[in-house]
Amino acid sequence: MVAAIAAWGTWSATHFGADEERERESREKRSQIYADYLTAARSHADQKTSATYAQMNFHHEQKQVPARVSANVSAARMTYLQAKADAARKVHQLEWREYLTTFTAYRKQVDLVYVYGSDAAWQAHLTVDRAIGDDPDEPLSDAADDLLSAGLGQLQVVFCQEASATPRRGCSG
Predict the structure, then answer these.
(1) What's the mean pLDDT in 72-97?
(2) Torsion of CA 156, 158, 164, 166, to 10 degrees
(3) Sorting pLDDT into bands at 50, 70 and 90, what band is 116?
């Protein structure tokens, strides 16, 4: 009987210790994933807006360049306008490349939240994703920006609740 109790004690200590270790590892993994997701989502949303405005500026500058030199537009003025349009095009290209980089980083974090995150984290992501939208040529509206803030706030609450073994009282949202 004593041997059985000792064996059960050893088994339960090992079993419960393993559960605690898995829980700690899960919290650590989610903590990193949620932190990286928040960073990637914010960066991607900001870059989407920057790329969109760079594109709009390029199109505006391109429209300012007349088709030919005329009585109203000197060759020097046309050269100046074309240089402004070329500079705006270069800025747009740089912003677009950065947009693609942030989009890729964001999608990678989305995949990790899908696999390792909780249902609450996934729901928060869906709110963020609706806010950012699929159209790279559409800047975030005020309503989309508000939705983005709400989704990121939801994920921060989930992060606070799930990343700590003893969440603070303020984690309820």
Answers:
(1) 89
(2) 110
(3) very high
116: CB partners within 8 A, 6+ apart = 29, 30, 33
The three-point CA angle 22-28-33 to 5° equals 125
Q: Which residue has the tokens 């046309």?
A: 78
- Work out the mean pLDDT of the chain and round it to a whole number: 86
Q: Report the C-alpha gap between 120 and 142 in whole angstroms.
A: 25
Sequential DSSP letters for 143-160: HHHHHHHHHHHHHHHHHH
Asked whether the beta carbons of 163 and 68 are under 8 A apart, the reply is no
Q: Cβ atoms within 10 A of the Cβ of 55, count?
A: 21
**Tell me: the pLDDT tens digits for 141-151?**
889 899 999 99
